[in-house]
Write a structure and sequence with these properties.
The chain has 411 residues and is α+β, with helices and mostly antiparallel strands. The protein contains 13 helices and 18 strands. The longest helix is centred in the N-terminal third of the chain and has 24 residues. It is elongated and about 85 Å long. The two termini are 46 Å apart.
């Protein structure tokens, strides 16, 4: 009797395990891809489901449905399988700026007059903190009132959040002037020395030239550390947004950065005058190598995380002018961070725009994001292996520009 019960129990367990295996093999997921198609700068809005081809890791997939979205409305749909697209909108205005640019207020004003509507959600990210605007804000105050409040907050936070960075830039400019005075002709040296004593007494307190060069090195290192981007913060941000339903749009404003440095002729004079101090020559010349350092993070992982979150990053590069300083050369040092932000936008199907006018760049980005297709497909032979699956969407027999997110993690 006991043997019979044991056999029945084993058979039951085997059946349960077998059923579990079958269930695992039949896991079905649906992938949603916001797709934008352009001919030149014009959005193409007359495409059908038959016009699209979608590939996952190079393998052709079957499009199950496509929806044409304009702002928040579904204008047209074609369904082989029914879906329920979520077209609510979450906006993030993210400001990576060191100085407040007055014309940013024009971009914010345009946003409230033409883009943001009741029911939309908005988060403003400043150099100091993040602010969540209540969805009913426009019912309480006008767009002009909200614009004035937000620009005031942004101006304040840009000043407070970058105070240490700007102070380090000032210190570096003062040290460069000291080095220039050291190699100046005798008739210029006295005048420059007096000028520096008046403007930068802390750096002209009788220190040796070796100490001045060491201070130069210290401040350059400090500036680079202040410019460092925290990879984990990017990954955490992407993970938070992944759980939000609806369409997620990030407008990333990044202000061009400049680094004060010695003029080439000053460096040549220094090398010539201090040939008897090779260590000092080496220390000063090696400082220029630090200017070429790249962003120290796994950019591929960051790009994949944002693509996986199914959001759109629109990168707006603000080309502010360099502030002229006598005797100081300002070298643009934006290329490392610029490259990362542009790649993030590309990985999410967003736009990259450069302009000295924030409102113009913002309008271009708005024109690009408001119209799009939502394309759905069910991956063939899906396995939850945790790997990043690359997506490619094409329009058959047309030379259109097609933008979309780069892929997703099969978790």
């Amino acid at each position: 009797m006991k043997k019979q019960i044991l056999i029945i129990l084993i058979a039951t367990l085997c059946f349960t395990f077998s059923s579990y295996q079958i269930q695992e093999e039949r896991v079905v997921i649906n992938v949603e891809i916001p797709v934008r198609v352009f001919e030149g700068n014009t959005f193409v809005d007359n495409l059908t489901i038959e016009d699209f081809e979608v590939y996952e890791d190079g393998k052709l997939q079957k499009a199950e449905a496509i929806y044409l979205i304009k702002k928040r409305s579904i204008e047209r749909s074609e369904e082989r399988k029914r879906f329920a697209p979520e077209t609510s909108r979450h906006f993030y205005l993210w400001f990576e700026i060191t100085e407040y640019m007055p014309r940013i207020s024009e971009a914010i004003e345009y946003f409230f007059e033409n883009v943001f509507f009741p029911g939309d959600n908005l988060v403003i990210i400043t150099p100091l903190k993040a602010y969540h605007l209540k969805s009913k804000a426009l019912e309480i105050g006008s767009g002009e009132v909200i614009t004035n409040q937000l620009t005031g907050i942004l101006r304040r936070d840009a000043t407070a959040g970058n105070a240490e960075y700007r102070a380090a830039l000032r210190d570096l400019r003062d040290i460069i002037r000291i080095i220039e005075a050291e190699v100046a002709e005798d008739d210029e040296k006295q005048h420059m020395t007096q000028e520096i004593e008046d403007s930068a007494p802390n750096f002209f307190a009788g220190g040796s030239l070796e100490e001045v060069v060491q201070m130069y090195s210290t401040i350059v290192t400090k500036l680079e550390n202040l410019r460092n981007l925290d990879k984990q913060k990017f990954l955490d941000f992407a993970n938070i947004l992944k759980d939000k339903e609806g369409q997620k749009h990030i407008f990333l404003f990044y202000e061009r950065e400049f680094m004060p440095q010695l003029q080439p002729n000053t460096l040549m004079k220094f090398m010539s005058q201090f040939q008897d101090k090779p260590a000092l020559q080496h220390n000063l010349s090696s400082l220029f190598e630090t200017y070429t350092r790249d962003v120290s993070m796994d950019t591929e992982k960051v790009k994949q995380a944002f693509a996986d979150s199914s959001l759109s990053i629109h990168f707006l590069f603000l080309k502010n002018l360099a502030e002229s300083r006598p005797g100081v050369q300002l070298q643009e040092r934006s290329e490392d961070i610029y490259r990362l932000f542009k790649q993030m936008a590309q990985a999410t199907g967003g736009l990259s725009e450069s302009s000295s006018n924030p409102a113009f760049a913002f309008k271009r980005a708005v024109e690009a994001f408001e119209n799009y297709y939502l394309l759905y497909y069910t991956p063939k032979n899906y396995t939850s292996d945790g790997k990043f699956k690359k997506i490619e969407v094409r329009v058959k027999n047309k030379k259109y520009t097609v933008t979309h997110r780069a892929g997703y993690f099969a978790n």
